[in-house]
Amino acid sequence: MRICKLHGKIRFYFILTVLLLFIVGASLTALLPKVDHDEVGVLRRDSWPRQQQHSLADSFTIIMQTYNRTDLLLKLLNHYQAVPHLHKVIIVWNNIGEKIPRELWDSLGPHPVPIVFKEQTVNRMRNRLQFFPELETEAVLMLDDDTLVSAPDLVFSFSIWKQFPDQIVGFVPRKHISAPSGIYSYGSFELQNPEGGNGDKYSMVLIGAAFFHRTYLEKFQKLPSEVHSLIDETQNCDDIAMNFVVAKHTRRPSGVFVKPVDMRNHERDASSGYTGMWHRAEHLLQRSYCLNKLADIYGSMPLQYSNIMISQFGFPSYANHMSKN
Amino acid sequence: MRICKLHGKIRFYFILTVLLLFIVGASLTALLPKVDHDEVGVLRRDSWPRQQQHSLADSFTIIMQTYNRTDLLLKLLNHYQAVPHLHKVIIVWNNIGEKIPRELWDSLGPHPVPIVFKEQTVNRMRNRLQFFPELETEAVLMLDDDTLVSAPDLVFSFSIWKQFPDQIVGFVPRKHISAPSGIYSYGSFELQNPEGGNGDKYSMVLIGAAFFHRTYLEKFQKLPSEVHSLIDETQNCDDIAMNFVVAKHTRRPSGVFVKPVDMRNHERDASSGYTGMWHRAEHLLQRSYCLNKLADIYGSMPLQYSNIMISQFGFPSYANHMSKN
C-alpha cells in the first residue's frame, strides 16, 4: 500500500515539475528581445532592407524587344524584374509564330512585377516604338535584349531623367558629323574632331539603354510614312529617328549621357548564336544613309551637340571626384 | 663717238632689264598663295587660332578677393587674364591701406582684359559679395586668390552655368548632415553616409571656384543684418550663406558640381607664408555653427542634396567615357 502511494506522489510531483519548467521556459522566451528583420546595417542574412513601394510618378516601365534570344531574355529578366522603381515589363515579341514563355514565367512565379508579352505579326525593328496600352508610367526604359545594366546605374539614370524629362537620358552616346559638302556621317568617339582639341561631343543617345517620356512614342507614330518606310527598309535607324523627334520638339540636344558604371553586353551568350543587327556589314553605312534621308525629310538637321557627361557623385567610391591635389 | 653711243645703249638696256626684273618679281610675289595665319591645324609657331571676341551675354567677370598674397595674385592673374570668354577682372583689395599694384600692372601692359582694383576700408570676408558697379556681365566667376583653375575647366563650367544659370556651378562640393537631434553639421566626402551604400551627395557648392548669377550679389546684400553679422563675427561662412540664398530662391539644390580636370591650390607659394583662413583651428566647427545659426534665421533648412557630377565628354581623352566592355 505504501509503495502505491509513493508512485502516485512521484507521478504528481513529476508532472508538476514538467509543467513548471514549461511555464518558466515559455516566459523566458517571450521576454527575449525581438529580432527586427528590417534593421539596416546589421550583417545578418535577412537584414537587407525591403524595397519600397513607389508611386506611378516615381516608377518606370521597361520596354524590351526580343528576337531569337529567348534564353538570354529570360536571364536578363531575372535581373530586371527586381530593379527598384520598376512598375511593369513589356516584352515586344518579334519571334513571329513562336509561343511566348508565359507558362514558364508563371510556373516560376510569383514575380516582383507584372510582365506583358506583346506578340507581333511582322518582325519589324520599329515594333518597340508602338504606344502600348499597358504602359501606365510616364517614363519608359527601353532596353536591348542583350544588355545588362546594373540597378544602381538604372536608378541613378532614372533620377536624372526626372530632371530632364523631355530628353533621352541614357548610356550610349553617338554623333553625326557634317562634312564640308553638307553630307552627314554617323560615328562615335573615334570620330571626334582631331582639330578640335577640346574634347568630344555627341548628338544622339541611343534608345537601346535609355529613359524617355512616353509621349515620344506617340510622336513617333505620327511621323510621316517615309520615316517608317526608311526604318522598315533598313531594319535600322529607329533610334536615330527618335533622336530627330526629340531634338525637333525640344530645340535642344536630344540626349543626356549618363556614364554607366556597370553595363554589359551579353550578345555572345545567346544559344542561338544570333548576335544582333549591328554586326551586318552595311549597318553603320545605313546609319549615315539614314541621317541624310531624315535630314531631307525634315528639311533640316535638328540634331544638336552636347558634351555633358553625368556621373553619380561618390559612386562606386569617392575616388571618382577627388582632385589631384 | 661710237664708243659713247655704245655706253648709252648699254646703260639704257641695263636699266630696262632691271626694271623688267623688278616688275616680274613683284608680280610673281603678288601671285603667291597668301599665308593664312589663322589656319587651324598647321603646325607653325604663329598658327594657334586667335581668340574670338565674345558678346557680353557670352562672357563672365572674375571677382577675386585678395589678402596678403599679392605675389601669388599677380602670378594667377597672368593665367586668368587670358581665359576665353573673360570680360573683366575685379580684384577686391582687402590689403587695407596698402597701395594697389596699378602701376606695375599698367607698366606690364597691354593686357587682354581690363582690371579693376576695389580698395576696401575694412578687411571683411564678405567684401567680395558687394554688387560692384563695374560688373557688366550676368555671370560672375568667383575665385579664391590661391586657386588656379585651368582654362578648359573654366570654359566648360561656364557652358554648364549657361544651362543652369540660377544655380552655383563650381568645382568644390560640400555637404551638411542632419543629426537625429535636428542639429546640423558640416562636412565633405569623409562624411558620406556609411549606411547608405548608394554613393555620396552634396548640398553646397563653394564660391571660391564657381560661377553664379550677379543677382545673387544683390540678394545677399538684402539679407537680414544677422546674417551679415554672423559672417563678420566668424570671418567665415559667406559661401554657406550664398548657398542658403540660392536654395531658398530656387527651391532646388543650390549647386551643380563640375568635376575639375586641373585645379590647383597654390597657398603654399605665397611669399608671405599666409595660407588662408581655413587653416584656423575653429574653421570647420564655425561652419557647422553657421549652418545652425542660418537655419535658425531662415526658420528652416533650405539646402537640398544632389548627387549629380558633371564632366566634359571626351576631355582630356575619350578614355573618360569608355565602358569596360
TrEMBL record, chains A, B:
Keyword Membrane among record annotations: yes
PANTHER family given in the database record: EXOSTOSIN-LIKE 2, SYNTHASE CPS1, PUTATIVE (AFU_ORTHOLOGUE AFUA_7G02500)-RELATED
Subcellular localization, as worded in the UniProt entry: Endoplasmic reticulum membrane
Keywords from the named record: Disulfide bond, Glycoprotein, Glycosyltransferase, Membrane, Transferase, Transmembrane, Transmembrane helix
Protein name: Exostosin-like 2
Pfam family, any one: Glyco_transf_64
UniProt entry tagged with the keyword Glycoprotein: yes
TM region positions: 12-32
Principal subcellular localisation of the protein: endoplasmic reticulum
Protein family (similarity comment): Belongs to the glycosyltransferase 47 family.
Residue stretches making up the Glycosyl transferase domain: 60-315
Domain of life assignment: Eukaryota
Record membrane topology: Single-pass type II membrane protein
